[in-house]
Amino acid sequence: MRYVPTNCLKPGMICGKRIIGKNGQLLLNLGAVLQDSYIQKINELGYSGVYIEDQFSRDIMIDDIISDTLRANSVKAIKELHTGIAGKKIDAMEKLDTINVLVDEILSAVISNKGLNVNLMDLKIFDDYTYYHSVNVGVLAVLVGTAMNMNRQVLHALGVSAMMHDIGKVFIPKEILNKPGRLSVDEFEMMKSHSERGFNYLSERYAFSDTTLDAILDHHERNDGSGYPNGKAGNEISRFGRIIAIADVFDALTSDRPYRPAMSPSEAIEFIMAGADTSFDMHVLQAFLERISPYSPGTTVKLSNNSTGIVLKNHRGSSLRPMIRVIRENGQEITPYDIDLTHDRNTLGITIIGTEDI
Ligand SMILES: [Fe+2]
Predict the structure, then answer these.
(1) In the chain, which end has fewer C-beta atoms inside a 10 angstrom radius, N or C?
(2) What is the pLDDT of residues 211-242, one digit of tens each?
(3) pTM above 0.85, yes or no
(4) Domain spanning 2-53: which CATH class is it, in words?
């Protein structure tokens, strides 16, 4: 299967991966044939693209880093935690037990996936952005943690902290959280208070470790001291805070937001790399780049020799030079053939110049 951006979907295309509607119900099953009405629905739900099965991509398997069910359960738990706190239900923290179990399952999935084939073209629904985002940041942070050789206990604490990093958003009015336009100075100040509010709420009521509390407090701090709330710099920022900062920015950039469309993973990685050292910790960024590839399997890419291909497989540590199935040359469809940009000597002069919408 391959990833096709929503604006390139056409009736007759075959669904390569289940598409989930609101509240987790099935919208389209594997093998379903797209019709105009489905495409419209996919658009309305805010999917930036879906997986399609076609003649070029039938044998391309895309492994999800975590299963649909685990993701849906995690999103549900985070949603219940947030809404429980917002509704001032005292038992909101009971959700923590569930989150601990879910983080454990996420850890098992991440640890067993040693490759770089992390599926980042995640299918997110705009409405529940904060909850999906929290789960994605949890998964990404744990991936970075594995590249930093953390042990399971530390990874678990990192996963829980990352899943809860935006808990302070329950105290920010919805009109500000979901405002489509630019925030006013006052609104932005209110928005920025979420990390401190989350920290205060948890530290006043519950016995969380300092590591988790500091992670939540620090996730908008920046390496050069330009972040908030305390303008901490370099190693003053907690290690978890530095990891969650990168995971947070990457997931936000690759999601559709009310004020801008999603960036592709490669664009988001370029954006983050531009902030190396100023915004982000170099050491953490290196670990991030080791596990996160800009071109996930199933992505259609344009090559420097004017051909087009679909990414088949990434090589760890060489994420810009994956294996590719070439399907077009000079704009013309050809009999597909596979190349390996890392290992084929005759491809040394070929580079990926970007993603292509087809
Ligand atoms: Fe945040």
Answers:
(1) C
(2) 999 999 999 999 999 999 999 999 999 999 99
(3) yes
(4) alpha beta
